[in-house]
C-alpha cells in the first residue's frame, strides 16, 4: 500500500506541474514560433485533452485485458518520455509549438490509458477493508500536489527556466512507473489469448455491465453536472469576486479555503461513521450548489468563502467514498471499462463548462447561469437517493477481499473452480 501511495503521489505532482510549465513557457515565448498568445496555449492544451477523451473507452478495455501495473508502468513511462523531451527541447531552445502540441497529445493519450488501470490496480492490490483509507490518502496527496505544483513550476521557471520544470516532471513520472510497475497483485491469472473476445465485444460487454448498475449511472450523471457547473464557477467566480467582493484577494481567499476544505474532507472520509457511502456521495456532490448560489446571489465574501469551503469539503469526502464504492461493487474483470465511462464524463464536462461560461454569461448575465447550475447540481445528485441501491449498507469485508461480489464475478469464480476440478485440481 505504501508503494502505491508513493507512486501515485509522484504522478499527481508531475501532473500538477504540467499546466503551469506549459502556460509560462508559451506565454513567455520560450517556444519557437510562439506569439505568446492564448491561442498557442489553447492549441497545446486541446491537443492534450482530445486524445484523452477519445481513447478512454479503448483504455478501459486494455485495463481489463492486461495486468494493471503493467498498463500504469507503460503509461507513466510514456508520459515521462514526453515531458523529458519537452524539457530537453526547451533547454536547447529548439522547441516549436507543433512539437509541444504533439508531445501534449502523447501525454493525453498516456493519461487516458493510465486512468482506468489505476482504479483497477488499487482493487487488485489492496484488501477491501483498507481501500477507503488508501483512497482517502491518495486524494490528500493529489490535493497537496495540486496546491504545490503551480508554485513549484513557477519557482523553477523563475530560477532555472521552464526546461528544468519539464525535466522534473519527466523524472517524477518515471519514478512513479518504477515504483508501481513491480507491484504484487492478488489478481488471478488471465486466460490465454485464444479464449479472449475481440475488442468490440469487450467494449460492448463493458457498456452492458455499466448499464446494469443504475446507482453508477445515476451518480455519474450527477458528477457530470457538478463538473460542468464547476467550470462555470471557476470562470465566473473570479469575475464576481473582483467586481463585488473586494478585488483579486477575495478570490484567492475563496480558492485557498476551498483547498483546505477538500483536504479536510478527504482526511475525514475514512473516519466518518458512514454506513451508507452512496448517500454520502450524493450529498457531497449536491453541496456544490451552495457556492453556486452564493456567487449567483452576490452574497458577501464571508458567506461565499464559507459556502465554497463546505462544497469542497463535500467533494473531499465524496471522492474516496466513490472510488471505494466502485472498487467494491463493480467486478474487477470489468472495472477498467466501467470506470472509463466515469472518467470520460468527468474529463469532458468541466472543460465544456469552462468553454461556454463566458458566452452564456454574455447573454444571460453572471447570476442566472450560476443559480440555474445550483438547481441542476442539487437535483441531479440528490435524484440518486431515489434508488434503493443508495441506501444499501456494504457488507463487512473479509481478509481476502470483498464479502459481496456481483453476479459476473461470481460466475467467473464458479467457472474457474469448475475448470480446476476438471483438470484434477484440489
List the main descriptive attributes of the protein structure presented here:
426 residues; mainly alpha; Growth Hormone, Chain: A; 2 domains; 79% helix; globular; disordered C terminus; transmembrane transporter activity; cell membrane
Could you characterize what this model shows?
The chain has 426 residues and is mainly α. The protein has two domains: 2-184, Up-down Bundle (Growth Hormone, Chain: A), CATH 1.20.1250.20; 213-394, Growth Hormone, Chain: A. 79% of the residues lie in helices and 0% in strands. The chain is globular. The chain starts with a helix and ends with a helix. Mean pLDDT is 82; it is low at 188-194 and 396-426. The chain crosses the membrane at residues 41-63, 216-237, 249-269, 278-297, 303-322.
SSE blueprint and pairings:
Layout: H1 2-27, H2 38-65, H3 68-92, H4 97-125, H5 128-159, H6 162-180, H7 199-212, H8 214-244, H9 248-269, H10 277-286, H11 289-296, H12 301-329, H13 335-364, H14 367-382, H15 407-422
Keywords: Cell membrane, Membrane, Transmembrane, Transmembrane helix
Main location: membrane
Region (Disordered): 394-426
CATH superfamily of the largest domain: MFS general substrate transporter like domains
Stretches where pLDDT is under 50 for at least 5 consecutive residues are 188-194, 396-426
Count of β-strands: 0
N- to C-terminal distance: 31 Å
**Strand percentage:** under 5%
What spatial form do the alpha-carbon principal axes imply?
A: globular
Count of distinct structural domains? 2
Tell me the series of helices and strands, N- to C-terminal.
HHHHHHHHHHHHHHH
- Global structural class: mainly alpha
Number of helices: 15
Architecture of the largest domain, CATH level 2? Up-down Bundle
Rg from alpha-carbon coordinates: 22 Å
Average residue pLDDT: 82
> CATH fold name of the largest domain, please?
Growth Hormone, Chain: A
- Main sheet? none
Helix proportion = over 70%
CATH class of the largest domain: Mainly Alpha
Amino acid at each position: 500500500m505504501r508503494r502505491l501511495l508513493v507512486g501515485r503521489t509522484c504522478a499527481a505532482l508531475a501532473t500538477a506541474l504540467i499546466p503551469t510549465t506549459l502556460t509560462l513557457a508559451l506565454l513567455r515565448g520560450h517556444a519557437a514560433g510562439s506569439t505568446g498568445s492564448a491561442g498557442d496555449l489553447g492549441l497545446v492544451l486541446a491537443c492534450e485533452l482530445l486524445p484523452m477523451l477519445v481513447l478512454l473507452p479503448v483504455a478501459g478495455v486494455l485495463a481489463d485485458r492486461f495486468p494493471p501495473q503493467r498498463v500504469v508502468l507503460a503509461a507513466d513511462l510514456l508520459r515521462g518520455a514526453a515531458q523529458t523531451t519537452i524539457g530537453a527541447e526547451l533547454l536547447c531552445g529548439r522547441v516549436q509549438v507543433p512539437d509541444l502540441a504533439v508531445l501534449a497529445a502523447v501525454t493525453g493519450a498516456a493519461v487516458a490509458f493510465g486512468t482506468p488501470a489505476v482504479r483497477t490496480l488499487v482493487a487488485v492490490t489492496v484488501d477491501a477493508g483498507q481501500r477507503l483509507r488508501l483512497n482517502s490518502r491518495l486524494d490528500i496527496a493529489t490535493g497537496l500536489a495540486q496546491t504545490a505544483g503551480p508554485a513549484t513550476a513557477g519557482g523553477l521557471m523563475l530560477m532555472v527556466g521552464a526546461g528544468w520544470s519539464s525535466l522534473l516532471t519527466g523524472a517524477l513520472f518515471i519514478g512513479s512507473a518504477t515504483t508501481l510497475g513491480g507491484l504484487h497483485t492478488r489478481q488471478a491469472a488471465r486466460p490465454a489469448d485464444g479464449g479472449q473476445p475481440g475488442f468490440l465485444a469487450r467494449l460492448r460487454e463493458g457498456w452492458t455491465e455499466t448499464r446494469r448498475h443504475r446507482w453508477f449511472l445515476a451518480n455519474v450523471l450527477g458528477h457530470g453536472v457538478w463538473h460542468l457547473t464547476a467550470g462555470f464557477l471557476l470562470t465566473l467566480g473570479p469575475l464576481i469576486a473582483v467586481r463585488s467582493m473586494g478585488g483579486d484577494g477575495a478570490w484567492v481567499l475563496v480558492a485557498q479555503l476551498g483547498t483546505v476544505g477538500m483536504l479536510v474532507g478527504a482526511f475525514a472520509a475514512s473516519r466518518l461513521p458512514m454506513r451508507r457511502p452512496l448517500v454520502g456521495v450524493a450529498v457531497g456532490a449536491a453541496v456544490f450548489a451552495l457556492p453556486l448560489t452564493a456567487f449567483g446571489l452576490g452574497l458577501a465574501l464571508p458567506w461565499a468563502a464559507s459556502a465554497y469551503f463546505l462544497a469542497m469539503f463535500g467533494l473531499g469526502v465524496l471522492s474516496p467514498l466513490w472510488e471505494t464504492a466502485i472498487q467494491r461493487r463493480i467486478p474487477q474483470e470489468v472495472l477498467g471499462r466501467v470506470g472509463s465511462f466515469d472518467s470520460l464524463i468527468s474529463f469532458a464536462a468541466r472543460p465544456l463548462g469552462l468553454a461556454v461560461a463566458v458566452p452564456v454569461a454574455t447573454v444571460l448575465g453572471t447570476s442566472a447561469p450560476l443559480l440555474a447550475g445550483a438547481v441542476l447540481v442539487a437535483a441531479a445528485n440528490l435524484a440518486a437517493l431515489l434508488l434503493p441501491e443508495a441506501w444499501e449498507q456494504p457488507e463487512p469485508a473479509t481478509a481476502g477481499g470483498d464479502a459481496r461480489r456481483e453476479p459476473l464475478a461470481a460466475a467467473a469464480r464458479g467457472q474457474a473452480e469448475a475448470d480446476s476440478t476438471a483438470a484434477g485440481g484440489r
